[in-house]
Design the sequence.
C-alpha cells in the first residue's frame, strides 16, 4: 500500500469540537467508523473521503474513520447489516430491496437505517451502437433481433439492473442467443473498446452525468441513447421501486434530446448499531457545511439537505433515530 492510499484509508480524527456548531454535549466520546464505499477512484470513494475530512474537525479527539476502497452498490447494504461497516453509500432502490428482502436479497436486512439521501442522480442508461437507432429499447430490440448486448460483470448493480430491464421486455441471454444475438458480461475496458470496433450493439449501465466510461463511448463511437419506453418505465417503477429521472439534452455527445429514464440516488446509510448521537453528528456535519461537502465531487453540486436528504424516495429505508431528530429540529419533517 503506498503512502497516499494509506492516508486516504485511515483518517485520524484529531482536534477538538467544534467548528460549525455541532454541540459537544451530543457526542463526547471518540467513535470508530468504518465506511463502505467503492473502489479507489470511484465517485463513492471520493464521497467517503470527503465525509471523513469533514468529520475530522467535528468528532471527539481520538475518533477514527476507515474508508477502504471496497464494497459497492450491491455489497454495501449487506456489509452494514452484518456489522462489517458502520455507515456506507448505497442506492435508494437497492435499499428498498434490502429492506423488503427481495430481488438481490433472500431475506430482509433488518439492521439498516437511513442517514442522508439524494446525494446525486443516477440514470439507467441504454446505449445503442448506431447513430440512427430506433429511440426506444423495445422498438430497437424488435428491429434488431440479433442484438449483441454487453453488461458489466455479474454481481454489479449495473449488470443486475440491465438484466432486470431486459427481462421486463421478455429478453434474456437464451432468448438473445436463439435470435442470433448474445449477452456478454465483461469489464468496462472491453466494452469501451467494443463500441468503436463494432463488436457490440447495446450496453445498459447505471450512470451519472459526466460518467467517464459512458463519455468515452459516446466520444469514440456514433451512438444513440435510448429510452425504456413509457410502459416499461412505469412497470419498472411499480414493480421494482425505481424512480423516474430526466437526462437533459446534450449531456453526452450525440444525445440531442431530453430522455425519460429510470433513476435512483445515492444515500448514506447506517447500521442500527450506530449510536443516535453519532448519527446526529454525521448528518449535522454534512447539512451545516454543504459547500464543503459539495466541493468534494462535481456530482454532489446539486445536493441539498433541506429538500432532498430526508425524503423516503431518496433513501429507501426508515430514518435512523439520530438523523430523524436532526431533520425534525430543522422543521423539515413533522
Sequence:
Amino acid at each position: 500500500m503506498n503512502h497516499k492510499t494509506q492516508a486516504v484509508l485511515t483518517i485520524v480524527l484529531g482536534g477538538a469540537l467544534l467548528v460549525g456548531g455541532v454541540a459537544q454535549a451530543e457526542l463526547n466520546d471518540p467513535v470508530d467508523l468504518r465506511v463502505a464505499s467503492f473502489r479507489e477512484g470511484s465517485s463513492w470513494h471520493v464521497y467517503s473521503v470527503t465525509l471523513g475530512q469533514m468529520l475530522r474537525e467535528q468528532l471527539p479527539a481520538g475518533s477514527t474513520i476507515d474508508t477502504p476502497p471496497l464494497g459497492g452498490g450491491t455489497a454495501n447494504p449487506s456489509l452494514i447489516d452484518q456489522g462489517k461497516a458502520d455507515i456506507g453509500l448505497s442506492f435508494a432502490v437497492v435499499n428498498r430491496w434490502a429492506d423488503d428482502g427481495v430481488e438481490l436479497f433472500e431475506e430482509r436486512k433488518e439492521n439498516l437505517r437511513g442517514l442522508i439521501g439524494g446525494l446525486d442522480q443516477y440514470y439507467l442508461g441504454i446505449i445503442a451502437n448506431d447513430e440512427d437507432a430506433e429511440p426506444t429499447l423495445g422498438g430497437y430490440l424488435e428491429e434488431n433481433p440479433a442484438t449483441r448486448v454487453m453488461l458489466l460483470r455479474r454481481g454489479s448493480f449495473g449488470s443486475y439492473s440491465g438484466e432486470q430491464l431486459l427481462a421486463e421486455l421478455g429478453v434474456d441471454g437464451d432468448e438473445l442467443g436463439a435470435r442470433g444475438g448474445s449477452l456478454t458480461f465483461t469489464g468496462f475496458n472491453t466494452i469501451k473498446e467494443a463500441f468503436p470496433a463494432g463488436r457490440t450493439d447495446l450496453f445498459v449501465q447505471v450512470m451519472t452525468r459526466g460518467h467517464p466510461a459512458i463519455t468515452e463511448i459516446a466520444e469514440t463511437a456514433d451512438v444513440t441513447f435510448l429510452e425504456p419506453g413509457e410502459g416499461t418505465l412505469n412497470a419498472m417503477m411499480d414493480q421494482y421501486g425505481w424512480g423516474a429521472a430526466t437526462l437533459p439534452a446534450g449531456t453526452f455527445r450525440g444525445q440531442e434530446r431530453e430522455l425519460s429514464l429510470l433513476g435512483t440516488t445515492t444515500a448514506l446509510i447506517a447500521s442500527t448499531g450506530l449510536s443516535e448521537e453519532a448519527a446526529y453528528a454525521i448528518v449535522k456535519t454534512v447539512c451545516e457545511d454543504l459547500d464543503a461537502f459539495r466541493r468534494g465531487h462535481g456530482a454532489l453540486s446539486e445536493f441539498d439537505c433541506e429538500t432532498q436528504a430526508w425524503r423516503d424516495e431518496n433513501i429507501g429505508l426508515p430514518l435512523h433515530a439520530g438523523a430523524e431528530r436532526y431533520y425534525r429540529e430543522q422543521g423539515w419533517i413533522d
Notes: The chain has 14 helices and 13 strands. Residues 1-25 have pLDDT under 50 and may be disordered. The first strand starts at residue 10 and ends at 13. The chain has two domains: 3-120+265-330, 124-264.
